[in-house]
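Whiteboard transcription, Tuesday session. T.W. wrote the structure tokens on the left side:
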């Protein structure tokens, strides 16, 4: 094996595992003492609204931005603003 994923492992145990193994450890909700970190992109950018795993730090409120953009698109299509000549062949 080249590495192991430690998901939702208590941080003290993840640290001990990382120190004992000669292969890389990747943590997902396992604290700061693994060799690498991984999170699900959709969680990090907030695409699921109120759903947020405890170990995720959200860097963007993506659901709100996504819904605003989609609403603007629908509005522009209905008003005949989009597509314009610059968006046509």
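and on the right, the sequence the group agreed on:
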């Amino acid at each position: 094996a080249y590495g192991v994923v430690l998901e939702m492992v208590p941080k003290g145990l993840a640290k001990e595992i990382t120190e004992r193994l000669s292969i890389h450890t990747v943590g997902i909700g396992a604290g700061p003492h693994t060799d690498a970190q991984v999170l699900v992109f959709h969680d990090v950018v907030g695409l699921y609204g109120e759903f947020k795993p405890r170990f995720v730090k959200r860097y963007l409120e993506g659901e709100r931005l996504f819904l605003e953009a989609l609403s603007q698109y629908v509005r522009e299509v209905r008003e005949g603003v989009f597509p314009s000549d610059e968006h046509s062949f």
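Someone added at the bottom: The first strand starts at residue 3 and ends at 7.
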